[in-house]
Amino acid sequence: MILDFLEWLSGGPRPYAEVMDVWRTSCPRLTVWEDALDAGLVARRAGEVALTPKGRERLAGAGRP
């Protein structure tokens, strides 16, 4: 599911509010947003969320754009 999240962000930064609307969860088993942020795969800057170089590498390593 993290790869799905990273792929969703791969087109460019998205507003933080949109990311939270789509990906926030209260289920302790589905911590996609938190896991990606903790792993340094995404970063939040100036109200936007974007892939980091590490996130792009993770996508490329999985054969995703």
From TrEMBL:
Name of the protein in its database record: Uncharacterized protein
Source organism: Phenylobacterium montanum
